[in-house]
Specification:
Elements: E1 8-12, H1 17-29, E2 34-41, H2 46-49, H3 52-58, E3 63-68, H4 70-84, H5 95-114, E4 118-120, H6 129-140, E5 145-147, H7 158-167, E6 180-184, E7 189-193, E8 222-229, E9 232-236, E10 239-240, H8 243-256, E11 261-267, E12 273-279, H9 281-297, H10 300-318, H11 325-338, E13 343-350, E14 353-360, H12 368-371, H13 383-391, H14 393-404
Parallel strand pairs: 1-2, 1-4, 2-3, 4-5
Antiparallel strand pairs: 6-7, 7-12, 8-9, 8-13, 9-10, 11-12, 13-14
Helix pairs in contact: 1-7, 4-5, 4-8, 4-10, 4-11, 5-6, 8-9, 10-11
Domain Arginosuccinate synthase-like N-terminal: 8-171
Binding site for L-aspartate: 124, 128-129
Keywords: Amino-acid biosynthesis, Arginine biosynthesis, ATP-binding, Cytoplasm, Ligase, Nucleotide-binding
């Protein structure tokens, strides 16, 4: 045991196997320091939160804070990212990435409250989360020390962790049979490990938790109406609700129809490729609704810029740079574009697919008078000839020069 000069540590606690082992490990390896557990409720399984305080205390924590951040998560983290249209590597809706900076921020708040001198997370040395936690702490609390047990201890397997807790008579509901690693919040649930470690293995039924298999979803399509204001969903089927409630409602509807399943191999920030199955039913519906209104409202150049913002934002959020000036700058631009993204979209849900079948906006740039294939009196076809001649002028000059040669 070394004296690290640390007297009180705030731990990002979930009640799972890793963090249950971290509490006694910290006390044994950091001079019998005081460990304060912090659970951030961002919409994970309610069963996981039952008795979590008692569990932390039985593991050796001196206190356990449970902070309800569900509304803050969706309104201040998820919705802003949605305004940019961010999709990491074209398909991942960033469920874990958006949650980590909020959890890290809450831990800083608790550390300041209890007078802690260190922060601790249970992320492994192979993943992205260690970067997200520690980048947030560097931005918000550079004076606090950081402890990352997975980069220090010699407990390298699930079996070793279970044995460690058994030796100390600390109860856990974890078992060797729980082969998958899962992350759950109000926005999504991810599943990694087990059969998914080989990309040649198709996911089995156990890899999907929230959503009905699209093949077994209802044979009758369902329509849902989503109201959008300034690039944010504010009502579902005509009922105004908070961001979290909108998402919660759409999660239920979407799960029933097998909406929001993806099975991807992604590039982690640390250079490792990982394979995971993600379920984001409500989020997939919301994305389709927002893009539907944008199609009506944003002109061609604005839409192109919004797509560029989304691409850049996907990497900024994935890499844990939430509190960096770049993220705030991208967000400001997206908010400006979203000022007129108001409207209503009817989406059809059917066996895993979401289709925007009706859309309207008071700010729509779509004009039936101009777009019609029938006879109209507002568009002079002959004008197109001059436009094309000017638009292609450089190509024409280049070709004439080639002929001269």
């Amino acid at each position: 045991m070394q004296n690290h000069g640390i007297k009180k540590i705030v731990l990002a606690y979930s009640g799972g196997l890793d963090t249950s082992a971290i509490i006694p490990w910290l006390k044994e390896n950091y001079g019998d320091c005081e460990v304060v557990a912090c659970v951030v409720d961002i919409g994970q399984d309610r069963e996981d939160l039952k008795g979590v305080e008692q569990k932390a205390l039985r593991s050796g924590a001196s206190e356990c804070y449970v902070v309800d951040a569900r509304e803050e998560f969706i309104s201040d983290y998820v919705y802003p990212v949605l305004q940019t249209g961010a999709l990491y590597e074209g398909s991942y809706l960033l469920g874990t990435s958006m949650a980590r900076p909020l959890i890290a921020k809450v831990l800083v708040d608790v550390a300041n409250k209890v007078g802690a001198d260190a922060l601790c997370h249970g992320a492994t040395g192979k993943g992205n989360d260690q970067v997200r936690f520690e980048s947030t702490w560097a931005a918000l609390a550079p004076h606090l020390k950081v402890v990352a047990p997975w980069r220090e201890w010699n407990l390298r397997s699930r079996e070793a962790l279970l044995d460690y807790l058994k030796e100390r008579d600390i109860p856990t509901t974890a078992s060797l049979e729980k082969i998958y690693s899962r992350d759950e919040n109000a926005w999504h649930i991810s599943t990694e490990g087990g059969v998914l470690e080989s990309p040649w293995n198709a996911p089995n039924k156990d890899c999907w938790v929230w959503t009905v298999d699209p093949q077994e979803a209802p044979d009758q399509a369902e329509q849902v109406t989503v109201t959008v204001k300034q690039g944010k969903v504010v009502a579902v089927n005509g009922e105004a609700m908070s961001p979290f409630k909108c998402l919660e409602t759409l999660n239920v509807i979407g799960s029933k129809h097998g909406i929001g399943r993806i099975d991807i191999v992604e590039n982690r920030l640390v250079g490792i490729k990982s394979r995971g199955c993600y379920e984001t039913p409500g989020g997939t519906i919301i994305m389709a609704a927002l893009r539907g209104v944008e199609q009506l409202v944003l002109d061609r150049d604005s839409f192109k810029w919004r797509e560029q913002l989304g691409l850049e934002m996907s990497y900024v959020v994935y890499d844990g740079r939430w509190f960096a000036p770049l993220r705030k700058s991208l967000q400001a631009s997206a908010e400006s574009l979203a000022e007129e993204v108001n409207g209503e979209v009817v989406l059809q849900l059917y066996k895993g697919q979401v289709t925007a079948i009706q859309k309207k906006s008071p700010n729509s740039l779509y004009s039936e008078e101009f777009a019609t294939f029938g006879e109209d009196e507002v568009y002079d076809h002959s004008h197109a000839g001059g436009f094309i001649r000017l638009f292609s002028l450089s190509s024409r000059i280049r070709a004439l020069n080639e002929l001269k040669k």
